[in-house]
Design a protein that fits this description.
By secondary structure, this protein is mainly alpha-helical. The chain folds into 2 domains: about 20-145, no CATH class; about 150-175. The protein has 5 helices and no strands. The model has no long low-confidence stretch (mean pLDDT about 85). InterPro entries: DUF1003 (IPR010406).
Length: about 180
């Protein structure tokens, strides 16, 4: 089991029945993911004003108790430079730094995936825009080939004139035919 193994395909979920999903469950990567989320939560918490205020209050109480408290109840001597407090703060700092780095690495992985998805989305949008532009040009060209209003009116006038001429010929034939009888 490699504790430092990083999953490179973070944007694709694992299907529950696949070999990769079973291997993930077996090699402890799920535990690594939980640990990563836990450390990210701690790193996020350490970056808040509340954490700094609580840590400052803790140090102030520690110093006050070990300076002004009853002599027999003091557990960290001011004469030795508050050695226990120094060790506690050093231990906290030694764990905080790797947790912050782990959180940054995980965020970098998420950012990399997000950038790739944004790039793909931008490519799709560009392709869609180019397609729509070609369609608009095709429609404009097709509209140029369509008859305009004046052309249709002229054609209708010509048809109406032809109908009137034809009706005139029919009525003269009817009048001729009517006189013959």
């Amino acid at each position: 089991m490699n504790l430092f193994k990083r999953d490179t395909n973070l944007d694709a979920p694992l299907a529950s029945g696949t070999r990769a999903a079973r291997q993930t469950r077996n090699d402890g990567n799920g535990r690594n993911e939980r640990f990563g989320r836990w450390t990210e939560g701690i790193a996020r918490g350490m970056g808040t004003p509340w954490f700094l205020m609580i840590l400052s209050l803790f140090c102030a109480l520690w110093l006050a108790w070990n300076s002004f408290g009853p002599e027999e109840w003091r557990f960290d001597s001011a004469a030795l430079g508050f050695t226990a407090l120094t060790l506690i703060l050093s231990l906290q700092a030694s764990y905080a730094a790797p947790m912050i780095l782990l959180a940054q690495n995980r965020q970098d992985d998420r950012d990399r995936v997000q950038i790739e998805q944004d790039r793909q989305r931008a490519e799709r949008n560009l392709a869609d825009t180019e397609y729509l532009a070609r369609e608009v040009v095709a429609l404009r060209l097709a509209m140029k080939e369509l008859p305009d209003r004046e052309f249709v009116r002229a054609e209708l006038r010509a048809l109406l004139a032809d109908l009137e001429i034809e009706r005139g010929d029919n009525s003269s034939q009817d009048s001729k035919g009517h006189t013959d009888e």
